[in-house]
Structure formats: C-alpha cells, structure tokens
C-alpha cells in the first residue's frame, strides 16, 4: 500500500500556541528566580535586556533559568562542550507531537505516564524528556551512544523529584544503530522522537559554527566557541541528517508494530524527497509532515506509521481508551 502524499502545511513564523516561550524573555523575572543569570544580562544595541548568545556560559545560564521558571527543574547541568539546546524550539517539537497524538485519538490528547516516548539521542541535556514529562506527564526512554551523556541525563532525572522514575536512559552500544539492539522484544512506544545530527562531517559542523557566530556579530578569529556546544555525535554523522533519517526509517520498518508514530526533525527541506522515498520503500502506511518555525528559522517534523487503520484502532482502544 502506498503511503499518502504528505499534505502541504501552511508556513509558520511563530512557535506553537501552547509553547510558553512565545513572548520575549522576561529577564527581570528570570533573574529574580535564577540570580546567577543576572551576571550575563545587559542592554543590547536596541536598548532591550538580553544576553550575549555567542557566550556558552550565558546560554547555559539562560537555559537553567528557563527550566527552573517554566518546568520546575531546580538542578540542571551538562558536561563542558556538550549540546546546550535552545529550549523554545525544543518545546515546539513536544507540543506538535501532542497534537499528533490527539489527532490520532479522535481529538483527545492522551496524557499521563501510560504514554511512552522514545527520545533517540537524548543527550546530556535531557531537554525533550523534561519538557514532555512536565507538560504532559509522559514516560520517556532516552537513548544515546555516548556514555557520558547518558550518565549526565540520569543525574538530571535523579536530582529532580518531579522527574524521578519518569525517564529511563539507555546506552545504545552500537554507534551506527538507532533502534536495533535498543527496543526490547514486546516493548511498545506511542511515539519516538529524534533531532538527528545535522552536518555530514566535522569540517561542515565547524563551518556552520563559524557562520552562526558571524551572524551573531561576535566572530573572534577562525575557531569560535560553540555557543550551544555539541559533541561530534550530536553535530554530525557520515552523510548528515539525510543518511541518519534513512537509516532510522529502515530500522523502524523492521519493527512496524513497536510504535504508533515514528518521528524525526528534518532541518533541510532538500532532505524531504529522500525521506519520502525511503518511507515508501519501507512500507509506511501513513506519513505526516508538520512545519514548525521560530522566527525566521524554519524546520519541520516528519511522522510515519506502519500500522493499518485496523491496527491503529486496536492500539487506540487498548492503550488510550481509559486515559484521561
């Protein structure tokens, strides 16, 4: 059966309506809750309070303040050099996944820990599980090929009572595998999510960092600091996101009944045709493409399932019918 062609979505330039970060950062409020942020806050050239987004320490302090203010996370830390992601865009992915679940459940969002989500590449920051747990009460499994990242994510989970028991972090022992060797026999996920490595090589990742820093107007020589950090496996893989997502599609096709909606972020629009071809080959029964945006930055998520309509109805009845 051919998957239906993804319906075109309207262009967006704002965050999801439920995203609490749609308004400009309220730095007086953030610094009141997180005094350590105050050292990095100063007027920008427009006269508005801001931080130097090219300064990794400032970005990390802002993330701590946002997580404390909006998600009740009192302890959050990452090892030096690891990815420190911008939280507003990460929250958007979670909220659009919630919409996807609701659309698959007659318009009713199934909340609570009975909903199980696999975060591929959880990272040391553990951002997606934090947001998904605090916003919707979901249970998460977070996987990563980096043992340091797994231990850091475990420490965040253990140090925050609101996350205790809600996030299971697993090491993926095979660096070239995604679901193989990770999803256990009989294990079911309502969603998987992934922010795949964007670049195709270390050189491309370094060049991207240089462009970003130059755009911020803070380039200082040929080796700028990565303001959001990132280890090699977080920033690049051979073949870039196109290759990574194709592998993800192939591996998901080997376990079609393990998950209702497999999903991934897709940064480059040019990646989409290859993803759609891979999904057709793998036998996906439905494909959705959801556009997202944060200002001028455009992105999208692609979701696919291998379940037939009858299997989807059975999944809803068995796993979601009694959730309220």
Please explain how this structure is put together:
It is a single chain. Helix 3 (87-103) packs across helix 4 and helix 8 runs parallel beside helix 9. Mean pLDDT is 87; it is low at 1-12, 201-216 and 218-228. Strand 4 (139-144), helix 5 and strand 5 form a beta-alpha-beta unit. The protein is built from ten helices and nine strands. It has one domain (87-320): Vaccinia Virus protein VP39 (Rossmann fold, 3-Layer(aba) Sandwich). Helix content is 36%, strand content 16%. The protein has a seven-stranded mixed sheet with strand order 5-4-3-6-7-9-8, sandwiched between helices. Strands 1-2 form a two-stranded antiparallel sheet. It is of the alpha/beta class and 324 residues long. It catalyses: adenosine(1618) in 23S rRNA + S-adenosyl-L-methionine = N(6)-methyladenosine(1618) in 23S rRNA + S-adenosyl-L-homocysteine + H(+). It comes from Hymenobacter sedentarius. One of its GO terms (cellular component) is cytoplasm. It is found in: Cytoplasm. Belongs to the methyltransferase superfamily. METTL16/RlmF family.
Taken as a percent bin, the fraction of beta residues is: 15-25%
Secondary-structure arrangement, i.e. CATH architecture: 3-Layer(aba) Sandwich
**Shape label:** globular
> How far do the termini sit from each other?
34 Å
Helicity, as a percent range: 25-40%
What is the rounded Rg?
19 Å
Order of helices and strands: HEEHHEHEHEEHHHEHEEH
**Could you give a short account of the major beta sheet?**
7 strands, mixed
Which residue ranges are poorly predicted, with pLDDT under 50 across at least 5 consecutive positions? 1-12, 201-216, 218-228
Q: What's the CATH topology name?
A: Rossmann fold
CATH class category label: Alpha Beta
Describe the strand arrangement of the main beta sheet, using strand numbers: 5-4-3-6-7-9-8
Please count the helical segments: 10
Mean pLDDT across every amino acid position: 87
